[in-house]
Recover the amino acids of this structure.
């Protein structure tokens, strides 16, 4: 997860309007994540060095070097990326939709300022990748402190738009084969990214046969968010499905993806193509795991789809 885009979002102007101050969560040399969306539990990482802390126009931004998880990005007090396990998220949010499309050429990434999704998209034979990230500070600092993710920005096929993704999509209807939204949780600037109007705007920006994949929260914690969102998207998308990945440093060790299609009746549970040259360099995604990612525990399947 990383920073996000939001039409109509007003940047905070007072200290109390921001999320948690990341520095306040470092106690006795440990960072203790506190999230209002996962009450009663906390993820803690040992801090070796604070690399950067500041407030952008949109959020509190913290980078630190941990003892065992490499460099870490924290936004508004919530862990977004650790170098140790980021690939489990970046690979799945990217390659599930990319390999579900038979020939993706134009790709839009919304959010994802750390560059991890870009890195993965650029493994494919695409013509153009546009990233709309509203917070330029996340882009600039990620290039410094997360270079293994941000190297995607160096690809000549990538075009960076520091702007509202909704505005960009409105200006480019029917243009993209795949749209990936790598957002933070539905608080503050990311709240609108979990509402039906945003999904309708993405749907309108797709070409026929196109695919949407968005960060879809945790089945252990957020069924009250996932269920109504899936139901709303199902009203206009050809298909809508929920897949997931495991990742230790996200709440409850799991994060999901809402995947919707436009004119693709078979959905995305089976890859439309395979590429051994890509799969052999990946750490997490493979064609078998692609299919398995849509197999949900009974409690989640019933809660989301029944």
């Amino acid at each position: 997860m990383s920073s996000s885009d939001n039409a109509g979002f007003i940047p905070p102007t007072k200290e109390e309007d921001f999320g948690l101050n990341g520095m306040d969560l470092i106690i006795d040399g440990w960072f203790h994540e506190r999230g209002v969306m996962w009450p009663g539990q906390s993820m803690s990482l040992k801090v070796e060095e604070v690399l950067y802390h500041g407030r952008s126009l949109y959020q509190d931004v913290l980078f630190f070097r941990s003892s065992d998880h490499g460099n870490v990005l924290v936004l508004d007090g919530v862990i977004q990326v650790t170098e140790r396990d980021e690939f489990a998220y970046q690979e799945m949010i990217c390659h599930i939709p990319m390999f579900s499309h038979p020939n993706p050429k134009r790709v839009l990434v919304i959010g994802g300022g750390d560059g991890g999704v870009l890195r993965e998209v650029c493994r494919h034979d695409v013509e153009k990748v546009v990233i709309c990230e509203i917070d330029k500070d996340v882009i600039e600092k990620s290039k410094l402190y997360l270079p293994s993710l941000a190297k995607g920005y160096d690809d000549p096929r990538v075009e960076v738009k520091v702007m509202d993704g909704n505005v960009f999509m409105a200006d480019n209807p029917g243009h993209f084969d795949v749209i990936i939204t790598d957002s933070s949780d539905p608080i503050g600037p990311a709240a609108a990214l979990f509402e039906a109007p945003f999904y309708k705007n993405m749907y309108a920006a797709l070409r026929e046969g196109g695919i949407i994949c968005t960060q879809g929260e945790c089945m252990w914690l957020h069924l009250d968010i996932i269920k109504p969102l899936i139901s709303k998207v199902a009203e206009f998308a050809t298909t809508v499905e929920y897949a997931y990945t495991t990742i230790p440093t996200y709440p409850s060790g799991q994060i999901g993806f809402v995947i919707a299609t436009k004119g693709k009746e078979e959905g995305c549970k089976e890859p439309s193509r395979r590429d051994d040259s890509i799969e052999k360099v990946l750490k997490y995604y493979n064609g078998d795991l692609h299919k398995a990612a849509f197999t949900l525990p009974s409690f989640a399947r019933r809660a989301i789809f029944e």
User: Anything to note?
Assistant: The domain at 15-82 is CATH 2.30.140.10 (Spermidine Synthase; Chain: A, domain 2).
